[in-house]
Hints:
about 210 residues; 8 strands; eight-stranded mixed beta sheet; 8 helices; about 30% helix; alpha/beta; homodimer
Amino acid sequence: MRLRNKPGAMNRIKQFPNLVIQNPEAEKGNWNNKFNNNNPIHIEIGTGRGDFIVGMAKLYPNINFIGIEKYTSVIIDAMEKVIEDNLENVIFLNKDAQKLNDYFEKNEVERVYLNFSDPWPKFRHHKRRLTHKAFIDRYKLILPDDGEIHFKTDNVSLFEFSLQSMSEENLLLQNISLDLHNSDIKDNVMTEYERKFSEKGQRIMRVEAKLR
Amino acid sequence: MRLRNKPGAMNRIKQFPNLVIQNPEAEKGNWNNKFNNNNPIHIEIGTGRGDFIVGMAKLYPNINFIGIEKYTSVIIDAMEKVIEDNLENVIFLNKDAQKLNDYFEKNEVERVYLNFSDPWPKFRHHKRRLTHKAFIDRYKLILPDDGEIHFKTDNVSLFEFSLQSMSEENLLLQNISLDLHNSDIKDNVMTEYERKFSEKGQRIMRVEAKLR
């Protein structure tokens, strides 16, 4: 992702403490209070500029969405979209996913979305991939026993790696698509990257992996 | 596959009763006797004209290969290749894979190869796909507890279906390649179809699925 420093971004974010949560450790086990309802919570790790989570939040008003994004200079754009659209079912964490288990407890998150995650092509960096088993183990600690991880990417190596990693972690692979935009899967909400890559004719791949 | 009736094929095949086994039920549990050694047995279901199995038999002289092909008019070509090359580690069954469990017993086959199997595109025919769970259950009954199924195809729908079916059957998915001919997997022996499709620029996909 191309990142530009945005002066004032952090100050702007701090004006919306109920939209971008500064101290997520304090909310662990009580996220539903933030939304004032008991709807299921879906999280997206690596929310970027927020096209996906905002699109999903509009399509599924009875789901609570939490977007996690470590880069302040992009999460600000996602935040502005939520403010503009006046959405009440999205909040953000400007945090690294490494510490996920400090923020959520078991059964608190029903689904994890991973979209166009960093492919980390070098072998010695594979453990940083969000579908590496070290991360899947973190997801298992916050999902229910039949929780799901939905993953899409345009990166062939990352997708091959992810299917294997999910299989190794004993997840059930469902609704695999090796060419999402030419499949019959409906209601696909695109990320900003997905739109760009897809316009270049790049194939998008997707899988739903379910705990069992 | 384009099939032409070959007059005399059956008569020619019958001249080599130790190469194309006419009554495989009688050999169940004793296939190693046919090869006069105790080397592991790998089978290919849908051997076609035999390029794969002949190539593999040359590359791995310490593996015994059994090619299963229901069409007499193509298995004859595979047979002639084995005769010409004087290979002693290949035999054939001119049979339908439906009855696999009448021919082999548990632990008798170490690996199953499925190459460019019929995609059976209509939903009501999916149960005929060689990676349908009904077939995987048959393979489990002849493989050891850590046996493997190696599958390759150029058909996207069939590959998506197969990954899901293998996952559902709790197999461990390994060495997935979504573009085999542009991957770093070595010693790939091509089938006659693979050569043709690949020359047309078609991507070949492959997976090794291991029992666990």
